[in-house]
């Protein structure tokens, strides 16, 4: 797929079909994560956990919903594969920057693989309050979950959109 086509197709998927992500698709998404820019090249400040265990996914949803009911009872939207992105806790600003770059690469790679994807922030933020969930997510000591990326086959085909430069205000200084 051409890069501009990937950009045009990339969108948040909020309904996934009950079809597993293949190992090849997952490998490409994880390769993209590992190709993301990370501040000062400190890749050891970032950790990934691939979650495909239905019981753990249900626990994450239950915990998040209990803390923030506005999300609804299924804040993972049926994604059968969720990648938790954790970062060293001692540098929150760098954590957000690094995790966002890693997540965006994964989202774009998932689109290129024909998968739906969604950037999840409220679920990992809720998981931070549970030592049990952090342990189940294999979050290393001194790290915190910052974001998750849900991936899977979308329930309905993703439709591209026209690319434009008028959605975000832009001022040029010359």
From TrEMBL:
Gene3D superfamilies: NADH Oxidase (3.40.109.10). Residues 8-152 form the Nitroreductase domain. InterPro entries: Nitroreductase (IPR029479), Nitroreductase-like (IPR000415), Nitroreductase/BluB (IPR050627). Keywords: Flavoprotein, FMN, Oxidoreductase. One of its GO terms (molecular function) is oxidoreductase activity. SUPFAM superfamilies: FMN-dependent nitroreductase-like. It holds the Pfam family Nitroreductase. PANTHER family: IODOTYROSINE DEIODINASE 1, NADPH NITROREDUCTASE. This is Nitroreductase. It comes from Eggerthella sinensis.
